[in-house]
Write a structure and sequence with these properties.
CATH topology of the largest domain: Rossmann fold
Pfam families: PALP
Helix content: 40-55%
GO molecular function: L-serine ammonia-lyase activity; threonine deaminase activity
Mean pLDDT: 95
Radius of gyration: 18 Å
Cofactor: pyridoxal 5'-phosphate
Order of helices and strands: HEHEHHEHEHEHEHEHEHHEHHEH
Number of domains: 2
Largest sheet: 6 strands, mixed
CATH class of the largest domain: Alpha Beta
InterPro entries: Ser/Thr_Dehydratase, TrpB-like_PALP, TrpB-like_PALP_sf
GO biological process, one term: isoleucine biosynthetic process
Shape: globular
Distance between the termini: 49 Å
Number of helices: 14
Structural class: alpha/beta
Strand order of the largest sheet: 1-2-10-7-8-9
């Protein structure tokens, strides 16, 4: 069960190590929309994304039995980096299975933090192998998004937004597996239910929309998007139920729109954001969401872990 109190406790648990990230005014979108658009710059968090919030909260609230055999995780990259960093802080071994198409930057970054990284198939194949390793090695699985301690940690982003932009009327948040929007939305539903919460997915990895259409989490047969950090083939049971209660609007953006949003952030906001972090901006540039008529907008820029090769595919010569 995720409540405002569990998110506030997570803030107390991790606050001595993970500092609040800044909000930055997007001048171009502010002028275009006629209202202030703020970027919650989670790419400036440790390891370059919001993920250490959940990872550190999980590690610091885990039992000795959970930690004893080491940890296991499946990740397209940012959860791997965040958990590897948090595990290193606690001197706990971690094994991470990543899909073959995972960013080389994130793979090597996770290894540099001490994680054992195994590349295996697509994201569904990676999950299959991890479940086998949990049994074989007696690992404790740390789910990237469908664990209450992870969700609570990610929800601290919402507490910071309310402190930093008290005039916010709309928050636009990327969705992969739904952990961030579940935690963030729990905060807004409790403290500011007037805030319009918009979730944005890649059209080619729209696992939350798929779940909502079918009445529960179901695996997408195929996930193919440049936004690898959002390439979850299925949302979680917890995140599905929480998200459907706290999300006011769910949008999808195509690959071209995501690439344009990455370029916008680099050119206009001077933020080197990865594709998955840019989907909220893509939705504003494409004008696909229904915004409240007044008040400030906050767009969560979830990470900046992108290598040169990945960037060049988004910025053709």
């Amino acid at each position: 069960m995720i409540t405002l109190e569990t998110v506030q406790h997570a803030r107390d648990t991790i606050g001595d190590t993970l500092l609040p990230t800044p909000v930055i005014l997007d001048h171009v979108l502010t002028e275009r929309l006629g209202r202030r658009v703020w970027l919650k710059a989670e790419l400036f968090q440790r390891t370059g994304s919001f993920k250490p919030r959940g990872g550190l909260n999980w590690i610091r609230t885990a039992s000795q039995d959970e930690l004893a055999g080491g940890l296991g995780a499946v990740s397209a990259g940012n959860h791997a980096l965040g958990l590897a960093w948090a595990a290193r802080e606690a001197d706990v071994p971690v094994t991470i299975v990543m899909p073959d198409n995972a960013s080389h930057f994130k793979v090597e970054g996770s290894r540099a933090l001490g994680a054992e990284v195994i590349l295996h198939g697509d994201i569904n194949d990676a999950w299959t192998l991890m479940h086998e390793l949990v049994v074989q090695r007696d690992l404790t699985l740390v789910h990237p998004y469908d664990d209450p301690r992870i969700i609570a940690g990610q929800g601290t982003v919402g507490l910071e937004i309310l402190d930093q932009v008290p005039t916010v009327s709309c928050i636009v948040c990327p969705i992969g597996g739904g952990g961030l929007i579940s935690g963030l939305g729990t905060v807004t539903a409790s403290l500011r239910p007037d805030i319009h919460v918009v979730g944005v997915e890649p059209a080619d990895a729209a696992s939350m929309a798929f779940a909502l259409a079918l009445g529960g989490p179901k695996h997408l047969d195929r996930v193919d998007t440049c936004a690898k950090s959002l390439a979850a083939a299925v949302v979680g049971e917890n995140t599905y139920h929480i998200s459907r209660q706290v999300t006011d609007e769910l949008m999808a953006v195509n690959e071209d729109a995501i690439a344009r949003a990455v370029r916008h952030l680099v050119q206009n906001a001077k933020l080197f954001a990865e594709p998955g972090a840019a989907v909220g901006i893509a939705s504003l540039l494409e004008s696909v969401n229904t915004l409240p008529t007044e008040g400030d907008i906050v767009v969560v820029i979830t990470g900046g872990n992108m290598d040169r090769q990945e960037f060049e595919t988004l910025w053709p010569a």
